[in-house]
Every structure is written in C-alpha cells, then in structure tokens.
C-alpha cells in the first residue's frame, strides 16, 4: 500500500525528529534508491556512493530535483563522512552542479521501483522518479516510525496501570475522609442511636452516589467473575472477582490492540519484502511491549509493594495482576522471537545468528520467561511450592541477565535502561525484607552492651493437629493488628532460607502500655505479672494421645474476664510483646516443625525462629455495628485477633473505640479438640459477653455427639435466639446455652447451613434496626476455599436483594 505525499509530509514532520539530522533524510532516500541500481564499471558500493561518476551525478541530479539546499548540505555531510571512513573523497554537489542544467536533467532516463528488479547495468546517469524517491524516503523512515510507535505504545501500558492504581489510591484515601469512616468509634449508646438516623435513604446527589456505590459493590467488587468459584480453583485456575476480571480483560484487550495489525507495510519498500516488514514490525512492537510490562510484573510480585499500602488492595489482588502480566509479557516475548526468527530466515542469516550474544541471550530469556509461567500454574505450585519459588527466583535472574545482554549497547540496541528499574524494584524488596527481619528480631541495648533476640515456644496439640507458636520478638514489632501476617524463618535448620507466612492470631503487650487484653490500660506493669495464677477450673475433654495439658496460668482483669497465658519462664525477653501463631502442619516446613515438637518429651520446644513483618491490611470490621465472623479450621487464627481487638476496644477506659455492638462468631472445624484448646485460651475472654454470640461446629466423624466445653462462660447472648435458620441439631445445641449463665459451651456436629445463617443474621439486624434504612453489617470469612466461596455467595445474594449496609471481607492465603 502506498502512502500519499501528504502522509509523507506528516511523517517527515512528526517522526523524523528521531533522526540525528532530519534534513539529511532527503539525500539518504536518494542514496538508498541510487544504490539499488548497477552502473557500468562494476564499482564497489562505497565507490558508487563516493566517486563513481555515473552514480554520483545521478544522486546529485535527484538532489537538485527533490531536496532543498539545506537538505543537500546536511546529506552531503553524512555521505562525505561515510566516504572518508572508506578512504574515499566524495565528489561534491558543488562540483557536479554546473552540469545539472534543465536540459541535462531532462535527458536522463527516469527510473521507477519496478526498474530495480530488471537488474539492468546503466552506462549513463539516471533520474529517480518522484514515486521512487517517495518510496525510498518511506523505506528509510518506516523502521524509525514503527520503533517510535512501539515506544509510545509501551507508555500506554504505564498509563493503564498508572490509571488503575490511581483509581485505587483515590478510592482508598477517600474512604478515610468520609465522615462515617473518620469516626469509627461512638462512645455511648446515645451517640449510637443518634448516628442511626432512622428514615428513608438519602435522596438527591447523595442518594445517586450511594446507589452507584452499592451497584458497584454488589455487581463488581463482591461476586466472583462467574459461578461460585473464587477461592476455589476451577480446573486449576483461579477465578478472580468481577472487578479484577474487568481490569485483567481490559489489560488483555489493550495489549491485543497495541500489538494489533496497525503496521504500515508496503510493497515498494526498498529494503524489505512485505512479509519481512510485517515480521520485523510485529517483532519490534511485541518486544518493546514485553519490556514495558516488566516493571509492573516485578512491582506486583513483591512483598514490599508500596501500592498494597497505597490502594489497600490485598497481595492476592496484585498477585492476580502479576500472573496475567507475566502471561502477556511472555507471549509477547515469544512472538518477538518468532518474528525475528522468520525475518532472519527470509534474509538467510538465521543459522549464523546463533553465535551472536544478543541472539542466544534473547532466546534464553524468552525460554526462562516461558518456563516461569509454566511452573507457576497452580497444579505445580501447590504440589512443590519451594521448587516453584526456586525456579522463579533463578529464572527471573537469568531472564534479567539475558535481557541485559540481548539489548545492551554492545548489541547495538539501547534498551538496557528499561531493565535497571527491575533491579531497583527487586533490590528494594529484598533490602526491605532484611530490614524488617533485623527490626523485629534484634534489639541492641547500648546501656549494658547486650543484645536481645527473638524467643519462641512451639507446642504441638496432637488432637487438634495444630502447632501453637508463641514468639517474643527481640524488638517491639510495629503496631501489631488484626489482619496481619508475618513470615517465619527457622534459619538454623535444614533449608533455613525457607520462610512461610502465618496470620497473627493473637498479640499481647506485656508492658500493658497500650491497654491490650492481657494487661488492661492503666494497670501497672508488675501487677500484670503478679496476677498470673494457676487456675484449674477449665475441664477440657481429656485427650487419650496427647500429653496432659500443662497447668495454664490465668490473668484476670477488672471485669472478671480471664486471659490465659502460657508460662515459659526460660523464654521471656522481659516486658515486651508476645505474638501467637497457629500453624496447621502441611508437608514441608510446618511438618518438620511439628516433628521437632513430637520429638521433645515435654511436647514443647524453643526453636530459633525469626519473624519478618508485619504484612497485610486490617479489614475495617470495627466500623460496622454488626459483624459476622465465619471461620473454618485453622482460619480461626484470623478471627482471634479481630475478636480480641473488639474486646480491647470496647473495654477501653477512655471510651469505646469501636462501632461494633454485636458479633456473631461461627467456627467450623474438624476436630472438637481444636475448639477446646483454643476456647480455653484465646477465646476465653469472649465467653459471658452479651455482645458476642458463638456457634461452634465439629465435623470429624468422632465428633458425632455434641461435645461440652466446660468453660466459665457467664451470661450468654440473647442475640442467639434470633438465629432462625439453624438446622434442628444446631438449634438444639445453641438453645441449650443461649441465655444461660452456666459453664457450658456446646459444639455441634456437622456443617451448618452457612447461607441460611448469614441471611438470618442480616434479617435480624434489619429488624433490630427499626427505621434505619441500611443497617451496617460486615461478614468476614476465613477458612477453606469452598467455605469462603459459600459465604461470599450468601453475602452477594443479600446485597443483590437490596441490603446496602452489608459488606464482605475475606482473609485468604494470598
Ligand atoms: C497470608 C497467609 C497467611 C497464612 N496464615 C496461616 C496460618 O495462620 N496458619 C496456617 O496454618 N497456615 C497459614 N498459611 C498457610 C501457610 O503459609 C502454609 O500452610 C505454609 O507455608 C505451608 O508450609 P509447608 O512448607 O509445610 O508447605 P507444603 O506442604 O510445601 O505446602 C502446603 C501448601 O502451602 C503452600 N505454601 C507452601 N509454602 C508457602 C509459602 N511460603 N507461601 C504461601 N503458600 C505456601 C503450598 O503451595 C501448598 O498449597 C497462610 C498463608 C498465607 C499466604
Ligand atoms: N489468614 C488466612 O488467610 C488463613 C489463616 C488460616 C487458615 N486459612 C484458611 O483456612 C483453611 C483451613 O484449613 P484447615 O486444614 O485448618 O481446615 P480443616 O481442618 O479442614 O477444617 C475446615 C472446616 O471447615 C469445614 N468446611 C469446609 N467447607 C465448608 C463449607 N462449604 N461450609 C461449611 N463448612 C465447611 C470443614 O468441614 P468438613 O470436615 O465437612 O470438610 C471443616 O470442618 C485453609 O485452607 C486456609 O485457606 C486462612
């Protein structure tokens, strides 16, 4: 396809800016065209350019016809440089000009594009036609033009992710500025009832804004893209939420459009055939787009991704983006490689290229990218996480080095500056990890020149199949809070570099300075220690296999609530913090940790463990008056910290710092023993509270009979009466404890009807809300994928039914 002269002018104006001297393009086009013809005398290419009379006269004749004097001067400068390099003296325009009168030029045979193919040997000078001049000009600028377009398209990738992140950042920070979010705490009942503002929903602009927000939350943010799979994989694939899907689909569409068939390929190209042009441009475009995707790929993979903090989006959201960017960048790299291979085959240069560094390093990088994507599929990741990680790190390193040699200045291309940001992002993440490890685990006391390090006690509860890890960090960790997780290392053991994330189940400030649950605000430090006492009244179902439980000290606060703390005199770091993690052994490090505990005659060990954190964002449950927490198995870890924070916040002597008035806590687990163990420790302060309703379920076969957990519960919530959707067995077990002040908590057997439970609590809250249009209720799930998906679906259907105050939160395994 031929471009018009108008387009040519546009191209010359807009795109020639890339050439060293745009004026030189005119002579460059003529030189290229004349170089395609043969003249009598069989001169070499350089001689033809510089000294061959027939050829040089042809060049300057065309120059007189098509170029301005500035362009002739600029072009002549370039050509004479080339000639000088070849040891020749260019016959100048000025020397030939006297002969270039109109009659002489009119006498010259005019040649066109098709004459090139005749391979005629000219024994006189020639004049290139205007169309041949234009074709030659286009040929010269087209590669630069395509390169320029590809680079601008690369910026579109930056614009896309920049825009998406900006929306996330604005949305996140706006949420802190809205009045409801700014004042989460309401100190007294009076202000609570005032805040309810019974009546119809707001109208006008506020009403429209609320409706839009509700629609977006209901139809885009909460549900999975399709069906009921989100945490559960579908054919070994993660199904994102709808909003994540929209972003991912837009990203794919953008890349397809940017790689799309918008290339200017024309038959009369003097250097390349149409096929060669197409492959070359596709290869260049996809190569540059692949490079443009790399910084996002690296940023979104990091633990210390500042956008997690800026947007409030979870690591798993960024992980979804990371995976899709990786796939796109890899496909682009593969197309890039194919494009160049085909082109080189056309040029008959393919075989020789394998000795070129830029060639084989590029191929290597393409292969390692492909292998990383292949070994990242869930099927492999779940089976061999450590191998997946090793492959990822080693291959990412090879990819970086390979790309550096592929596009360094030595290979004639200048793309290595695109790679340095990746090195910087990676280094930042690694240094930040190291800094966090040092910060959490090492405290140097300059006064007495001593060093405090992290102390750990690990205990394995056989019946519950759970390792409980109590950690006293060497240094105070920064602001422990619900929703956080830490990476744990056991550096002195085999594979000491391994590190695994675990949710912070519970934390205790032994100084009591922050009014934590263990030491109520205002009580002196020493008193806290003195109040620790042996309390034998917690009768747990005796385990046949596990060692008899060690006596557990209890700490009482003013209201008579008790907090049991395990007492490990050898493992104290003096007053500080105590972090508790609950670990369900799998097959790798967690199993090895369990085995270490089993080898100990006491069942408890004191391993050298380092923590790195905190990571993860807290879900704002405390902004909701009603909260439903549903957890499965070891998902209890996430619930404990939120429940404990609720107790702390509502007991704050300076006034409640939470909006939450009712919590419905549902825990389904296989082993009743797990409930018993944790009920006697972390959950104990919940019992007897009127604002927390507890439903416990055990599903393993040997838990068929309802089990009684004998714990001093005190009053129980009247809120329980309203759970209409419980199955018969569930009803009987719950009603036996509801409203009582005895010491029994029952564990029901079997899975509950989660959907029914969620809807029933929402209905109850609506009835309690009176005239309030949209009572606020948060539902949080943490547990097996199927359970989380079921709860998400239940909340989605409630939101669909018009419950605007309902929100869904999920703590996931990333
Ligand atoms: C944010 C987060 C919080 C978590 N909190 C808890 C918790 O409180 N309690 C708990 O018992 N478990 C928790 N886990 C899961 C825990 O990290 C894994 O069970 C643990 O890493 C398994 O280690 P392993 O070597 O024994 O695993 P393997 O037997 O090798 O693998 C078991 C499973 O864990 C996955 N896995 C292994 N290593 C990692 C890793 N480093 N990062 C992510 N996944 C991994 C594997 O893909 C596989 O699916 C959490 C995971 C995440 C991402
Ligand atoms: N912060 C976090 O992200 C975090 C922390 C800890 C755990 N977790 C999650 O929690 C999961 C728990 O694993 P685990 O091995 O500890 O659990 P588990 O011992 O297998 O217990 C899970 C319990 O949930 C029940 N359950 C499963 N699907 C259900 C559903 N759809 N409805 C109702 N009940 C259902 C199971 O019942 P059955 O026995 O009938 O199957 C079982 O009793 C992990 O897979 C992880 O995803 C997340």
Automatic annotation (TrEMBL):
Residues 1-19 form the signal peptide. It is found in: Membrane. This is FAD-binding FR-type domain-containing protein. It comes from Capronia coronata CBS 617.96. The chain crosses the membrane at residues 155-174, 246-266, 358-380, 387-406. GO terms for cellular component: plasma membrane. It holds the Pfam family FAD_binding_8. Residues 424-621 form the FAD-binding FR-type domain. Residues 518-577 are annotated as: Disordered. It is a multi-pass membrane protein. GO terms for biological process: copper ion import; intracellular iron ion homeostasis; iron ion transport. Residues 524-534, 555-565 have a biased composition (Basic and acidic residues). InterPro entries: FAD-bd_8, FAD-bd_FR_type, Fe3_Rdtase_TM_dom, Fe_red_NAD-bd_6, Ferric/Cupric_Reductase, FNR_nucleotide-bd. Belongs to the ferric reductase (FRE) family. One of its GO terms (molecular function) is ferric-chelate reductase activity. Keywords: Electron transport, Glycoprotein, Ion transport, Membrane, Oxidoreductase, Signal, Transmembrane, Transmembrane helix, Transport. It comes from the Eukaryota.
């Amino acid at each position: 396809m031929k471009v018009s002269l108008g387009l040519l002018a546009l191209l010359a104006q807009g795109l020639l800016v890339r050439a060293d001297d745009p004026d030189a393009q005119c002579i460059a086009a003529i030189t290229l065209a004349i170089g395609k013809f043969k003249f009598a005398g069989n001169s070499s290419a350089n001689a033809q350019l510089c000294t061959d009379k027939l050829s040089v006269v042809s060049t300057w004749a065309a120059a007189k016809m098509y170029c301005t004097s500035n362009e002739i001067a600029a072009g002549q400068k370039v050509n004479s440089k080339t000639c000088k390099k070849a040891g020749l003296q260019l016959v100048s325009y000025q020397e030939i000009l006297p002969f270039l009168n109109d009659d002489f030029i009119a006498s010259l045979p005019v040649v066109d594009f098709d004459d090139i193919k005749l391979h005629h040997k000219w024994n006189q000078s020639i004049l290139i036609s205007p169309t041949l001049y234009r074709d030659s000009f286009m040929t010269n600028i087209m590669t630069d033009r395509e390169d320029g377009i590809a680079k601008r398209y690369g910026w579109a990738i930056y614009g896309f992710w920049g825009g998406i992140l900006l929306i996330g950042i604005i949305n996140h920070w706006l949420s802190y500025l809205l009045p409801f979010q700014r004042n989460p705490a309401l100190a007294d009942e009076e202000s609570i009832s005032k805040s309810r503002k019974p009546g119809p929903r707001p109208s006008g602009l506020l009403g429209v804004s609320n409706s839009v927000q509700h629609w977006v939350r209901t139809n885009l943010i909460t549900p999975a893209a399709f069906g009921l799979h989100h945490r559960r994989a579908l054919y070994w694939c993660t199904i994102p939420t709808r909003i994540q899907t929209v972003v991912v689909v837009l990203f794919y569409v953008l890349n397809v459009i940017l790689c799309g068939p918008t290339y200017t390929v024309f038959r009369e190209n003097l250097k390349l055939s149409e096929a060669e042009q197409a492959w070359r441009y596709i290869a260049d475009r996809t190569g540059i787009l692949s490079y443009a995707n790399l910084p996002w790929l690296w940023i979104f993979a990091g633990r210390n991704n500042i956008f997690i903090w800026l947007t409030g989006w979870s690591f798993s959201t960024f992980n979804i983006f990371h995976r899709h960017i990786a796939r796109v960048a890899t496909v682009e790299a593969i197309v890039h490689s194919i494009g160049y291979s085909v082109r080189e085959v056309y040029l008959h240069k393919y075989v020789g290229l394998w000795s070129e560094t830029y060639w084989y390093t590029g191929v290597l990088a393409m292969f390692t990218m492909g292998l990383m994507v292949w070994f990242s599929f869930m099927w492999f990741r779940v089976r061999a996480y450590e191998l997946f990680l090793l492959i990822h790190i080693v291959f990412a390193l090879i990819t970086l080095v390979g790309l550096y040699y592929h596009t360094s200045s030595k290979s004639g291309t200048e793309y290595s500056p695109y790679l340095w940001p990746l090195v910087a992002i990676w280094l930042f993440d690694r240094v930040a990890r190291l800094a966090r490890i040092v910060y959490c685990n090492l405290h140097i006391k300059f006064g007495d020149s001593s060093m405090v390090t992290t102390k750990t006690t690990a205990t394995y509860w056989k019946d519950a199949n759970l390792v409980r890890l109590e950690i006293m960090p060497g240094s105070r960790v920064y602001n422990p809070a619900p929703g956080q997780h830490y990476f744990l290392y056991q550096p002195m053991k085999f594979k000491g570099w391994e590190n695994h994330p675990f949710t912070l189940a519970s934390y205790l400030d032994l100084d009591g300075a922050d009014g934590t649950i263990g030491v109520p605000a205002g009580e002196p430090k020493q008193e806290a220690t003195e109040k620790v006492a042996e309390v034998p009244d917690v009768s747990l179902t005796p385990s046949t296999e596990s060692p008899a439980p060690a006596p557990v000290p209890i700490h009482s606060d003013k209201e008579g609530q008790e907090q049991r703390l395990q007492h490990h005199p050898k493992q104290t770091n003096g007053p500080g913090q105590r972090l508790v993690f609950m670990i369900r052994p799998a097959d790798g490090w967690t199993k090895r940790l369990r085995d270490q505990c089993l080898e100990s005659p006491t069942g408890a060990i004191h391993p050298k463990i380092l923590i790195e954190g905190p990571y993860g964002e807290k879900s704002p449950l405390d902004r909701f008056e009603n909260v439903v927490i549903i957890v499965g198995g070891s998902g209890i870890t996430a619930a404990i910290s939120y429940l404990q924070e609720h107790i702390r916040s509502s007991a704050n002597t300076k006034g409640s710092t939470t909006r939450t008035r009712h919590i419905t806590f549902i825990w389904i687990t296989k082993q009743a023993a797990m409930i018993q163990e944790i009920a006697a420790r972390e959950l104990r302060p919940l019992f007897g509270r009127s604002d927390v309703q507890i439903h416990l379920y055990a599903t393993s076969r040997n838990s068929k009979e309802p089990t009684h957990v004998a714990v001093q519960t005190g009053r129980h919530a009247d809120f329980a009466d309203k759970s209409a959707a419980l199955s018969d067995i569930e009803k009987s077990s719950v009603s036996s404890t509801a409203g009582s002040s005895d010491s029994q908590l029952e564990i029901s057997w079997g899975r509950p009807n989660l959907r029914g439970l969620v809807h029933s609590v929402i209905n109850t809250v609506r009835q309690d809300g009176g005239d309030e249009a949209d009572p606020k209720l948060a539902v949080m799930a943490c547990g097996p994928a199927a359970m989380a998906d079921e709860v998400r679906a239940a909340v989605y259907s409630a939101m669909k039914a018009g419950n605007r105050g309902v929100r869904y939160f999920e703590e996931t395994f990333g």
